[in-house]
Amino acid sequence: METTLNECRPGDKVVIVRVSGEGPVKRRLMDMGVTRGAEILVRKVAPMGDPIEVNIRGYELTFRKADAGNIIIQKLES
Amino acid sequence: MSFKFALVGNPNCGKTTMFNEVTGSTQHVGNWPGVTVEKKEGKARRFKEDIRVIDLPGIYSLSPYSLEEIISRNYILEEKPDVVINIVDATNIERNLYLTTQLIELGIPVVVALNMMDALESRGDQIDIPRLEKQLGVPVIPTSANKAQGTKELIEKSLQVAQSAATGQLGESITIFDEQIKKSLDELLSFITPQCNQVYPPRFATVKLLEGDEIVIAKLQPNSAFMALITTTRGRLEQEYDNDMETIVADQRYQFISKVISKSVKKKLSVGGLTVSDKIDKILTHRILAIPLFLLVMYVVFTITFGFIGTFTIDYIDHLINVTLADAVTTLLHSAGAAEWLDSLIVGGIIAGLGSILVFVPQIMILFFFLAILEDSGYMSRAAFMMDRLLRKIGLSGKSFIPMIMGIGCSVPAIMATRTLENEKDRRLTIILTPFMSCGARLPVYALFAAAFFANAQSLVIFSLYILGMVVAILSGILLRKTLFKGEAEAFVMELPPYRIPTIKGLMIHMWDKGKGFIKKAGTVIFAASVIIWFGQTFDFSLHMVEEVSDSIFGSVGAFIAPFFAPLGFGDWRSSVALLTGFVAKEAVVATMGILNNLGEVGEGSVELMASLQTYFTPLKAYAFMTFTLLYMPCIAAFAAIKREMNSWKWTLFTVGYQTGTAWIVSFIVYQGGKLLGLG
After folding, report:
1. Is B605 found in the same domain as B668?
2. Do B591 and B658 belong together in one domain?
3. Average pLDDT, consecutive stretches of 10 residues, N- to C-terminus, chain B (680 residues)
4. Number of domains in chain B
5. Which of B211, B239, B266 finishes a domain?
6. Which pLDDT score is estimated for B168?
């Protein structure tokens, strides 16, 4: 089932289907390896509820929930 | 023969350690022309050839979206180093190779230093280096810079490449893109070669033109027919791949990397398994424990820096300079029969002025030592992660949190700590806001006035000033973000590097780098300013030495500007002069008040001074005066730090003007509002 990354919970394993949106944030996400086909493990949510931390391509990355909303994913398992 | 090697790599890949290892003490730090990004250069030790090593900023990509990226790109393209040494973190190879795929298009020979091999091996992972070399088309040297392993081989290999590299592009033979994109690129390539060969390497130029890189387009100025071809090609590809061109290119780079990795990297741990670092992180960023732990860390750093150790070093150095040294110099000058004005200039002006700054050096060093630990260990980025939500409200990101909190101790190191912010807009805004955090030097002023006028609510009044400073910072942040710093706030996309135990050597270099800069550069500004202030306090306009400060240039200026403060409730010339001397150091306000009330040098606990102040201040006026002291332009040391970090007189003067203007307006509101409410 396709959904967006901001809908996921810590512990979810997902694969990126597509990154929508545009501009510098998207470009930065792509540079950091958030591209189609990459697997993501959602690690945690910051103590104040935003941003989130994920494991991608073997390292830890953080970005805001608003930007996670532009990342369309497919859940692998939960 | 002489050579130029450029070090390029992602942040946290061990590039700085590598640079320190290769160049040792030969390095020097400057700024890239016109920007506040540091430029480090040095010479490779232990080699008879003359090798200059340039440390380029840590970057993730060569896109034209950040200052650091543009600097690195321009340096490589314009200065044409003999070899680009690309430091790749072996434990995070997938993302690190993304930059590599861009570097090999730049037409400069690349040597990959596969760093942190020790960490990789202890994790049990393996990398097939000959295979990786073949796939990337460039030499790969395994290194562990923190253990000085492989660095000699790295420089030897780079030398060998530099000496034989007349042939140029080593990575030319490999193909990153799929058939279809490659075909389109080749098509454009045949078009482009004649006109761009001089400016950009053709392969790089075609990719960038296709992506629509504005800098490259502006420089190459393709004619309309060529531009049309580019646009149609881009349109066709975007439709076929159902995405925008930049995304397609990034996608393909990562697909290429995935292919490379699958063949040459063997991982022991499955994706997402827990390392030691992950386990530490589970506690430090725990949903409930994280914030209390963070406050505890901050509390410890502050008590040590600004508490007993810091105070001890300040008192000790103060005594050393203002008593021991000053007395010795006075004796020396007397025995040499020097004129009174010379004695006054050297002892009262220069020694006192430099002393007021030098006393902070050990404290700054201690603070930077702790900050180096927080940064090198990886905790700093977790603090940003935790605080981002809070700071977003004032148009900043989590990365601004550390400088702001340090401002409560002292604005000087706080301003210098903004260097960790990569976005220039965010950095400037943070520098402007940081001095609103009430620093330690303002406390004696509050202590004096609170005791004299608010005897029953002293701590409440002082606490309210700290809060007022924060409120003003928040409101200023919102205001400036909506006006001067308009536009999209910096994206918060940040790597959280694994926790590492910092090396003592690394910490020392880190600390010394910043402390040295403070002594050297701030020193020159402060030296000049001390002389000017001494002059203003000692002479009158006809250049005669005066007995009473009220007759001096400062006294006259104080009387002249006093009406400016009248609407704020303290239009008395003594208050004006005190505020003027507060520019040297905020705590000087108290000393000046003592002198001007004919009480000589007194401390903030002086009963006589309080009685004297009570004759011309009311509680409301006192509060307005404290408000002004809190917000107006910071002391000269902070001024010098602002100038250094802004690297622009325009911004420095704006900062100081904005702060003083804000101080005036807020004090005006406090005083006039208070009067309206009948508190006068």
Report:
1. yes
2. yes
3. 91 87 75 64 85 90 80 88 94 94 88 93 90 92 91 92 65 76 87 69 87 86 86 93 90 94 81 72 86 86 73 78 84 84 79 71 79 84 88 83 80 80 83 90 85 88 90 92 77 86 82 71 66 80 80 86 92 87 79 72 76 90 95 88 88 95 96 88
4. 3
5. B266
6. 47
Q: Out of B172, B204, B221, pick the residue that ends a domain.
A: B172
CB B181 within 8 A of CB B195: no
**B339 close contact with A: CB closer than 8 A:** no
**In this structure, are B452 and B324 located in the same domain?**
yes
Q: Does A9 touch chain B (CB under 8 A)?
A: no
Inter-chain residue contact B388 with A57, CB threshold 8 Å: no
Q: Is B243 on the interface with A (CB under 8 A)?
A: yes
Residue B493 and residue A44: Cβ atoms within 8 Å? no
Q: Which residues of A touch B385 (CB under 8 A)?
A: 46, 51, 53, 62
Same domain for B183 and B168, yes or no, is no
* pLDDT tens-digit series, residues B439-469: 877 888 888 898 899 988 888 898 899 889 9
CA quadruple B433, B436, B439, B445: dihedral, nearest 10? 160
Count helices and strands in chain B by DSSP H and E runs:
33, 10
Q: Does B393 touch chain A (CB under 8 A)?
A: no
Tell me how far apart the alpha carbons of residues A32 and A15 are, in angstroms, rounded to a whole number: 15
Give the pLDDT of residue A14. Answer: 95
Containing structural domain, residue B112:
2-172
- Name the residue in chain B with its Cα closest to that of A55: B272
Tell whether A17 lies on the interface with B, counting CB pairs under 8 A.
Answer: no
Contact with chain A for residue B494, Cβ under 8 A: yes
Same domain, B188 and B39: no
Q: Are both B280 and B394 inside the same structural domain?
A: yes
Chain B nearest-CA distance from A65, in A, is 10
Q: Verify that B204 and B288 share a domain, yes or no.
A: no
> Binding site for Mg(2+): which residues of B?
20, 23-24
Greater pLDDT, B621 or A22? B621
Q: Which of B63, B94, B247 sits opposite A58 (nearest CB)?
A: B94
CATH number at residue A50: 2.30.30.90
- Helix axis angle, B93-103 relative to B245-264, nearest 10°? 120
Q: Are residues B137 and B192 in the same domain?
A: no
The one-character DSSP state at A17 is: E
Closest CA to B578 of B549, B606, B605, B551: B549
Q: What is the ipTM of this complex?
A: 0.95
Q: Which two tokens stand for residue B227?
A: 């531009």
The binding site of B for GTP comprises: 9-16, 34-38, 55-58, 115-118
Please give the tally of structural domains in chain A: 1
Torsion from C-alpha of B250, B252, B254, B256, nearest 10 degrees: -150
Contact between B386 and A26 using a beta-carbon 8 Å cutoff: no
> What is the least distance, in Å, from the CA of A8 to any CA of chain B?
16
